[in-house]
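Cross-posted from the bioinformatics board.
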Amino acid sequence: MTAPERPTETNIPRIGVLALQGDYDAHVQALRDVGAEPVLVRSPEELAGIDGLIIPGGESTTFLKFLERNGFLESLRDFVQSKPTFGTCAGCILLAAEVTHPPQQSLGVLHATVERNAYGRQIDSSIRTGDTQLPGGPLEMVYIRAPRIVKTGDGVTVLAERDGFPVLVEQGHIMAATFHPELSADRRVHQRFVSLVRSKIAGL
Ligand code: GLN
């Protein structure tokens, strides 16, 4: 008997977490907490068969170094064109159309300009509570050498801001946060992404 395929009746989205570097473990836990099945992704082949992807925080330059091997960057570029993808912090930098301070290449799918390390050095990392459009009131936001979304373009909805700059955004099948929602106990941001993935599975 061959191993069963993914059961078609399952309502559990399989969501990849790019696990080349950075704090992917915390996303794995957050996905489990909101009823998704996390799948670690370490090679371009592993992008097949997942319903969505989280690109975690870490160091975007280090991600790029790993991704430049074995065609991973090109495969990921294709993936993010159509599949739900959520980038947090370094992941947000990788998704952006334009990266500054300094400029670097990216996946280019999020209509935004993102400035790296915009809030100063490591010592300026902080935990804040801010307003959000997500239902349920203010949200804790953990910033670690965070980037700043300095400009957004067509189709980008801002779900939270810090000092007048977007920190949580959505654009069709793409979500991005400049903070680390996986490091807070509040699971609303991951819930939002899993709902987005479910809506795409349903063809909405
Ligand atoms: N400073 C990092 C970068 O520029 C991002 C930091 C993070 O992901 N926490 O890639």
